[in-house]
Amino acid sequence: MAPKEIRWGILATGGIARTFTKDLTVDPTTRGVTKVKHVVVAAASSSSKTRAEAFLKECNWPNAKAYGSYEEFVKDPNIDVIYIATPHSHHYQNAMLCLEAGKNVLCEKAFTVNAAQAKKLAEKAREKNLFLMEAVWTRWFPLSIYVREQITSGRIGTVYRVQADLSMADNPDKTYADGKNRMVNLELAGGAQLDLGIYALTWCFQTLYHTQPASERKPPKVQATMKHFSVTGSDESTTVLLTFPRSEKLGGDAHAVAMSSIRVATDPANGIASGPAIRIQGDKGEIQVFPPAFRPVDTRVILSDGTVEDKHWEQPGPGKGSGFYNGFGDTIQPEGVGQGMFWEADEAAVAIFEGRKEGSFLDLAESIVIMETMDEIRKQGGLKYPDKIETLDYPVAL
Ligand SMILES: NC(=O)C1=CN([C@@H]2O[C@H](COP(=O)(O)OP(=O)(O)OC[C@H]3O[C@@H](n4cnc5c(N)ncnc54)[C@H](OP(=O)(O)O)[C@@H]3O)[C@@H](O)[C@H]2O)C=CC1
Ligand SMILES: O=C1OC[C@@H](O)[C@H](O)[C@H]1O
């Protein structure tokens, strides 16, 4: 059967939009995906149509339509699904715009600013019978699927403890001195937790929550501490203790530590001598996942009988290497096409093809529980964003 063509629209033309849109040029059959193929039919920039044109050319979709306004773009009848790649502050307004216009949506992490916004979006998607998913790309990597299978197969026994860290030494006093960068800007819902901590939580949730039978999944209890960035008051380092309640039959409570920082790094010398970013500890062994937590390519399983099993998970496609931060205010994704963003795109496309309205490895209920966890972390850490980005009102001009 010929693959079904899924027509993408790209909302915003920044750093990650570029990586994602380039990844859509990689032939899905090179990674064993035969049901769907991707085509980018449009992109929109809120700054100008010229910027959208240049973006499409750079991303190798020169025939797609360029828009200089998100409002005009969402009306394009050729678009099946929209990828939203604006700052966190804008996700709620942008996703609502797309859903109201009848478009399926794949929205970058963190899904929204707060859980109430995530719930509203979920309600809107259900009302309109549209697909909606948070784009936490890591969940769809074969590496993550393997880690979850190691857990559910019982290979490392019952998992009692998880440690996960995504931290980058950005030298914030210098790099973010003017407070404008989206990493620290409160108007853009900046801060370590929403930008980086979401991945540490992702690892805790996909190992201790998602691996439980759906009927047994319970939100964790949260204890959090935050250190604030002196220039803007956003969080520069956040450390969270999570207690996942489990029945005695399943091993009783499990503990997790989720850390994020823009001051110190998980991996200070980019792979030289660094240890695991994630440790998943069971009573028969442990799984280690090496940095960076958002795009890991190496795992190690260590069993109590002395077995050590290392695996390397290079992303299929021409691109190589891991993402890094350049220290000058920009996040640089690895160079080249084929960085692994296509896995989440495949999931969205296959879901739309099959008529599913949610993602398989991260559904809306789980995204909402994670947003509730982040609400509690922010409450305990004393981090509040401006009302205009916490609001449920729509439309609001930001
Ligand atoms: N999955 C991953 O690995 C990564 C995910 N992300 C996520 O992607 C999203 C965007 O991050 P990133 O691409 O790094 O951000 P950038 O700052 O590079 O791009 C954001 C884009 O959003 C649009 N935008 C609209 N309104 C505003 C505004 N008021 N201020 C700034 N930008 C605005 C702009 O595009 P335009 O002018 O065209 O409208 C801009 O280029 C975030 O949610 C982030 O968490 C980020 C990096 C990696
Ligand atoms: O999602 C992300 O992953 C990579 C980081 O460099 C970036 O800041 C973050 O948004």
From TrEMBL:
Q: What is its EC number?
A: 1.1.1.179
Q: Which Pfam families match?
A: GFO_IDH_MocA, GFO_IDH_MocA_C3
Ranges for domain Gfo/Idh/MocA-like oxidoreductase N-terminal come to 7-133
Highest taxon of source = Eukaryota
Q: Which reaction does it catalyse?
A: D-xylose + NADP(+) = D-xylono-1,5-lactone + NADPH + H(+)
Tell me the SUPFAM superfamilies matching this sequence: Glyceraldehyde-3-phosphate dehydrogenase-like, C-terminal domain, NAD(P)-binding Rossmann-fold domains
Q: Which UniProt keywords apply?
A: Oxidoreductase
Domain GFO/IDH/MocA-like oxidoreductase positions: 147-287
Which GO molecular function annotation, any one, does this entry have? nucleotide binding
Key word Transcription present in the record? no
Q: Record's family?
A: Belongs to the Gfo/Idh/MocA family.
Stated name of the protein = D-xylose 1-dehydrogenase (NADP(+), D-xylono-1,5-lactone-forming)
Q: Which organism is it from?
A: Mytilinidion resinicola
